[in-house]
Request: fold
Amino acid sequence: MAAAVPKDFRRVIVAAAVGNVIEWYDFYIFGSLAAILAVKFFDKTHPVAALLSTIALFTAGFLIRPLGAFLFGWLGDRVGRKYTFLITLTGMGLGTGVIGLIPSYQSIGLSAAILLFALRMIQGLCLGGEYGGAITYVAEHVSDERRGYYTGWLQTSPTLGIVVSMAVIVGTRQYVGTEAFNDWGWRIPFLASFLLVAIAIYIRLQLQETPIFQELKAKGQMTKNPWKEAFLSSNIKFVLIASLVVIGQGCVWYSGQFWALYYLQQVSKVDVVTSSLIVGIALLIATPTLILFGWVSDLIGRKPVILGGMLLAAVTYYPLYSWLGTVTQPGNINYPVAIFIICILVSYVGMTYGPIGAFLAEYFPGRIRYTSVSVPYHIGNGWGGGLVPFITSAAFQATGSLGYALIYPITVPAVCFVLALFLMPETRRISIWNPAPEKAKA
Reply:
């Protein structure tokens, strides 16, 4: 198959990214409002335990993501990319919006926490099916030579989702006032999801199926059992290698931007609005590094860029977070330096995350691409990265030591770097437009 890239592929990228931004907005308002949710849905007599319980629920949403990837990956390879991520987008929107309607612990007791847990699981399942689909959808519309660059645009969507979530939270808090926000206003960001997802669904309904999937379907080359081909064949080796790479990338992603917000709020004791502004500005400044390093990977390869980001993160996290602590003392915050430090952290995210979509799409054949991309992606980001907020926060609460809190974010990328150095293949020259792309050798 030739790389017959459609003329409207930029619209494809925008539509996929807009849906992704909203899905990640949904996922992250939960984490951004963890302190308030802890008070609303758990016993107030043990505030630290309540906070850790909320973070654990946040983490559980990550841990279930591979199951969503497993289920929706099958659907994406059997039914199609477009309709599968329409289903996941709808489920995510409903799961998030209903959180804004749950009565508090004070009103219905333990049932509040159970309902919150159930909705969090729906979020995790749907996100598990969404992102692999978006990567596959965009990758199957663009040319081999510029896949890193264009999927790099898609990779900005989770970061922008965080920015949107923080903007809505800060804007709502400022509009209704802190007291009203803590009382009932925190529900507004969740309820806003109903409107945002309706817009995203409308945009995605305008899209067509990918050229590669249409060709597979027309030629009768679709898989009959994606799970068997992906996990009970020689392909499992490639799934395991990809999972290893994405675990390192996922740890850098959450350590570099999401734990930065936790760090400012829980360690430096910076208030919610100020910490959100610092992180939000840094994210907006540094998000283009995702596109930059996706483009760089088109020139020099996926492997050196991704592994370079892991190595830099492992070596510099401790000095960078120590420095961040010294410039964010309560009442004496050096805003430019704090923003600069977080920009550095996010640039490591750009190196590891910018090229990962292109790498995964190129590493697996079209007939099982949705399944094979989704499962490693969500094992790495859901388990490797998703554990970062809970482990780092719990370690700091238990010891009060930044060094102990950073053991996990430093060790995981370091170990993954060493293993991937020998196991990860270079995929830049693999053409996904060929009927049966040859697998690169590790």
About this structure: Residues 436-442 have pLDDT under 50 and may be disordered. The chain has 22 helices and two strands.
